[in-house]
Amino acid sequence: MRTPLSVRMFQSLPRTAWLALAIFAAIAWIAIPAAHLLLPESSPFHVSAYTVTLLGKILCYAVVAVAMDLIWGYAGILSLGHGVFFALGGYAFGMYLMRQIGTDGSYGVDLPDFMVFLDWKALPWFWIGSDSFLWALIMVVAVPGLLAFVFGWFAFRSRIKGVYFSIITQALVYATMLLFFRNETGFGGNNGFTDFKRILGYDITSPQMRLVLFGLSAALLIAVLILGRYLVTSKFGRVLAAIRDAESRVRFIGYQPTQYKLAIWTLSAVLCALAGALYVPQVGIINPSEMSPANSIEIAVWVAVGGRGTLIGGVIGAFIVNLAKSFFTVSFPDYWLFFLGFLFIGVTLFLPDGVVGLWRKLRGRRPAATETETPAPAGTTQGAKA
Exposed, middle or buried, 222 (CB in 10 Å: 0-12/13-18/19+)? Predict the structure, then answer.
């Protein structure tokens, strides 16, 4: 009898991983809310609204990093344009947030303020239904997913890979950014969407809503880690690893790499879009700068710093880089770019496998670990670890 999917997903993670997720959930859903709402601001253990927002933002970034690791670390597809899917998810949900402002805007009409400023008389056709929360969720998934599917179908069908694929993903994100900068597109131009008021009738700036969004971000990260672990340990994941290491051999034995690459590429884009949808109400703004090529390159840096092909490495890298950026921009505003540059160079030179790779090397130096290693047969090479 076939094992149910829920059981297989549960079995895909070891006990230590489940314990780590349980501790993380307890901190995100119990400890931080209690420290934010119950402890006075004078307490050293009080968690400020700024900290909750910052952590929620980084949790969204961590989801994007895991999505990137699924395609780069396990399928060998380096995308330098994933920022476009993140931003499209944010824009799709931002349209709903703009409609929820209603007559509370600067001009006191139902149209978003930027449309009134540009002398628009009615909503464009693609804004129809944007006042529905359910429709917004559908658009968050459908628009980036469809774009990723169409783009990936043409790219993978043409057997574009390697640096050439990375270049055309940069072209995609740059072209989309230029499109959204135009006022005529109906997405706020260079200012984008901002001044959000409420979600489902609740004040978006209230401490309770801030914690709800933070908790949802943590839940999404946990779900993505569990899903990712299940995928990479399944037959699907083994085929992806084979495609990464020797795509021509996979094609020779009868598999169709295009289908596998397209599936994981589209899933990765949708995960980025979901992270973008949670990111926007927490930071309070979405504009075309989120689609900048530099942001997409930084996503790859997060994975490289943490260690690609590990899932958890993307999470660690996202936290290290973004916490360092937040610290340096406050403490050393004139030199923070130099600090970040040294961080990236140091990781490239001394930690080619990232932080997780360093941890594995340190563990591998223990005598017990070296004694149980089985040498590879002569004349064979070992692929990258999945």
Answer: middle
Strands 202-203 and 198-199: antiparallel
User: Which amino acid, 5?
Assistant: L
Q: What is the pLDDT of residues 17-74, one digit of tens each?
A: 999 999 999 999 999 999 999 999 889 899 999 999 999 999 999 999 999 999 999 9
Residue 2 tokens read as 């076939």
Amino acid (1-letter code) at residue 38: L
CA dihedral of residues 34, 202, 210, 30 (deg, nearest 10): 30
Its sign, for the CA torsion 290, 79, 12, 144, is positive
CA distance 326 to 306: 18
Tens digit of pLDDT for each residue in 327-377? 888 888 777 778 777 877 887 788 888 888 888 888 876 544 334 344 444
Q: What is the pTM of this model?
A: 0.90
Q: Determine the Cα–Cα distance for residues 252 and 367; give it in Å rounded to an integer.
A: 41
Give the separation between CA 354 and CA 191, rounded to whole angstroms.
36
CB 144 within 8 A of CB 81: no
> Cα–Cα distance between 248 and 252 in angstroms, integer?
6
